[in-house]
Amino acid sequence: MAYEQYRRWIIQNFPDIGRGPVLDLVAGSFAGGTAVMFTYPLDLVRTKLAYQVVGSSKLNVKGLVHSEQVYKGIMHCFSKTYKEAGLRGLYRGVAPSLYGIFPYAGLKFYFYEEMKSHVPEEHKKDITVKLVCGSIAGLLGQTFTYPLDVVRRQMQVERLLSSNSGDMKGTVESLVMIVQRQGWKQLFSGLSINYLKVVPSVAIGFTVYDVMKSALRVPARDEAVIEVVTNKRNTHTSSLHS
């Protein structure tokens, strides 16, 4: 929704920007950032709860946390995080998420629309073609931005390992620390497994979205924009004649 709205707004207010992949890159980037700002606290809670289950035994061995559960559930995690650090605590690690989602979402839409533009007209409605375009878009977008995703998760779980909020590092510091301590390869640790989730997810998402738009007879993006602009011009002309 955000992508379509940003795209329409850009075309209406900056008509000279043209209709091409650059437009999709900009609209996709802003749409991704908007989605993150609305949903990030949920992602933070998910990561904390997952890390609590996976990492609890390791943490107990190191004596970093007590044996009892830190968080009892989703709402408890929300309330405890808010009480400890306020709204800022719920958005801990949002900076690398935004750094990552802006290029990721932008590149995802960019690659998808760019590849579709090179597909022959008779094959553009082929579901297999859409899936292939979506898969490649997801793969490329994820590869370029994955290190920032690693940094984001590092920052999200840092609070569990640190008793002093002053010890917590920023985005750049966390990135440098990972490279120094574990090497640059750690920034791509888990990427191959992530492909198994992200690539089909992006491919299916783009494909279903296009198919549903076609089934619901939603006008093509440019057609809808042209219609809105034309109506505005007609209204303006009518008011002048009046």
TrEMBL record:
Solcar repeats lie at residues 19-118, 125-215. The keyword Transferase does not apply. One of its GO terms (biological process) is transmembrane transport. InterPro entries: MCP, MCP_dom_sf, MCP_transmembrane. One of its GO terms (cellular component) is membrane. This is Graves disease carrier protein. It is a multi-pass membrane protein. SUPFAM superfamilies: Mitochondrial carrier. It comes from the Eukaryota. The lineage of its organism: Eukaryota, Viridiplantae, Streptophyta, Embryophyta, Tracheophyta. Keywords: Membrane, Repeat, Transmembrane, Transport. It comes from Actinidia chinensis var. chinensis (Chinese soft-hair kiwi). Belongs to the mitochondrial carrier (TC 2.A.29) family. It holds the Pfam family Mito_carr. It is found in: Membrane.
